[in-house]
Amino acid sequence: SVMSYFYKRAWCTVSQVYHKRNLLLEILSCIESKLPGNVFEISEEVLAHEVKRRLLRNKYLIVLDDVWDIEAFNGLEASFPDNGNGSRVILTSRRQDVAPQDKLDQEPHSLRQLTPDESWDLLKAKLYPGQDLAPPELCEIRQKVVEMCQGLPLTVVILAGILSRMDRYGWKEAVEGLSSRNVSSTEQCTATLELSFKHLPDTLKACFLYFGAFPEDHEHNTKRLISLWVAEGFVQKTQLKRSEDVANDYLMELISRSLVIVSKPRSIDGVKACRIHDLLYEFCVTKAKEEKLLQQVRRYDDLSAFTVPCYLRRLCIDSKPEHFDNLRLFSSAIRCLLLFHHGGVDRERSFDLRFIFSIIKLVKVLDLSQIQLRPTFPRELELLVHLRYLAILGNGSPVPASICNLSNLETLIWENFSFHSSVSLPDTIWNLKKLRHLQLKDKMSKNYHFRFPDDNLDNSSQLCNLDILSCLSLNPRKNINKLLRKFPNIRKLRSSLNLDQGYEYHVAIECLSQLESLDLSCVVYG
User: Averaged over 337-365, what is the pLDDT?
Assistant: First the structure.
């Protein structure tokens, strides 16, 4: 159908390193069956004129594939005459910002992932081109193959290449033993992903590889991910933007480069949650270890036999609960420790990690939100004065007054199981002047049971750096307006309002001049 509609057609692969002369020759060889004998001797300008002359008054289709820089298109544009007859030039790219903005009458078309049926059709076409029916040996592994490829054409093509070099009677056993790790280690996949990684600005490389710090198929809450990037020092601050805004720009750039997938968009604008494809995940895990950025210990690794390399600054552990009892970290170099409990939080089991806290005294990022500590907030944890990010799982106990010892804390995420009564924050919370993100939530429900101390507001400090507050329980009988003035620069507020039935209340929030997002729920008593 394309051949019958467009008289002249050319497919030209641009890629990251290109030469205008070579591109013109590639286009010319597509649109002309016979090239002049001296074609390799004529100048670049004459080549450009020859391409234009042969396209003039013809309906043509030019595909410029894998464009990394819009300058490649700009250098060729003069050779593409506007005949007004429906001719088209198509650019494909891994980057959304490559599209020439002055030529667009609509948004760039983002390719979706393949459906299971489309993945299956592509695999058949690669293994048995021109045939509709597949042998039973291939049909037998259809479900496993479709699940493994997750709609990514590159994975399908690589898997087809692996199977094509094997006896078909061994396909089932081979596919059952394959994983994203096997596929990502192939030369074709490594070269493709390495190209995308090398083209990233230095400011984005660490942010991208940081996705390898989490368990496979992990869905990332963007607010939490951004807080981690900021705490790790990956974000370059500017005078015009907050760190969170710069980090959000980083995330959107990774999305525009097709490296990160939006799993939950926000209702108005932005991204609520994101993830990366399994193939990219395996690349991040491997590359982050090579670059000595971080190392992940997976649930099938033996924690008791793991020795922390002396250079390692970031350690991420995704393990079964029984393995945490064997965790021994004899390295004072650790600056980041993320612990993930495979299978979810075990409410019946707690762990005493005080020995570890007494060693990793310089740690800046600590995520313990999936394991229960014994005790909940040990003395050794209070002494980690360099902490910028702390996520912790409580057992119903309140936030201790000693939290004020963590004077460098920028993010505090305190998760708890369901409460039967409100839990108050200590008066010392006002001493955490660097606090930017405060999230105190109930793991079992969406109710908010945490209250800020409001007995001595006249003498307490403001939290001027607080950007996100997700926890606040407000009581209309108290001076709400005076409390809200303690957060003058807050932009995102999630709160509950406790009301008595039959009474009308007015809450003045005009003091929150920077507020962008308000999530308010009401609890009515009586």
Answer: 82
pLDDT at 220 over 90: yes
Token digits of residue 72? 């490649």
CA torsion angle 513 515 516 517 (round to 10)? -150
Q: Which phi and psi (to 5°) does residue 275 adopt?
A: -155, 175
466 Cβ partners below 8 Å, 6+ apart? 435, 436, 437, 438, 487, 489, 490
Contacts of 341 (CB under 8 A, 6+ apart): 319, 321, 324, 370, 371
Find the Cα–Cα–Cα–Cα dihedral 76, 77, 81, 82, rounded to 10°: 160
Treating both helix axes as pointing N-terminal to C-terminal, what angle do 222-232 and 243-256 enclose, rounded to 10 degrees? 110
CA distance 155 to 189: 8
Which sign does the torsion angle of CA 232, 235, 237, 241 carry? negative
Element (H, E) at 155: helix 153-164
- Structural contact between residues 376 and 397, judged by C-beta atoms closer than 8 angstroms: yes
Point out the least confidently predicted range of 175-189, 306-320, 433-447, 472-486.
Answer: 175-189
Question: What would the pLDDT profile of 223-269 be if each residue is shown by its tens digit?
Answer: 999 999 999 999 988 888 899 999 999 999 898 887 888 888 887 77
- Produce one character per residue of 109-127: b if its CB has 16 or more CB atoms within 10 Å, e if not: eeeeebeeeebbebbbebb
d(CA 43, CA 289): 48
Which of 366-380, 470-484, 504-518 has the highest mean predicted lDDT (pLDDT)? 366-380
CA dihedral 280, 223, 338, 395 (to 10 degrees): -140
CB 9 within 8 A of CB 33: no
Of 31, 28, 30, the C-alpha closest to 40 is: 28
| CB-based contact 432:401 (threshold 8 Å) | no
pLDDT band at 351 (very low <50, low <70, confident <90, very high): confident
| Residue whose entry in the numeric block shows the structure tokens 């003045």 | 508
- Looking at residue 369, what DSSP letter applies? E
- d(C-alpha 264, C-alpha 275), whole Å: 9
Full-model pTM = 0.74
330 in Cβ contact with 310 (< 8 Å):
no
